[in-house]
Fold:
Amino acid sequence: MTIPACPKCQSEYTYADGDLLICPECSYEWKEGEAATESSAQIVDAHGQPLQDGDSVTVIKDLKVKGSSSVVKVGTKVKNIRLLADATDGHNIDCKITGIGAMKLKSEFVKKA
Structure:
């Protein structure tokens, strides 16, 4: 079986893990045959700027953290985001926020930094 290049960054170092294909360079994961449809679905910030894995973003609205009394304040910078193409609840950004920890954000509440 020949493993295809990454549809996102064109890396030739992709590998299979179960039924997923994974790119170690950009952390993109996809199932064979779905690469064309997923790569065409662009995730954009609140201002329409396209986002990519590894980007830094800034929060544009105070966000309450579910199950906690913490709040992510306006202007909080989040580095090295990871995009989630299969987000069913709208939370399509996976990240770690200093002082809060790992969480998911909606792209409509961030702008590209």
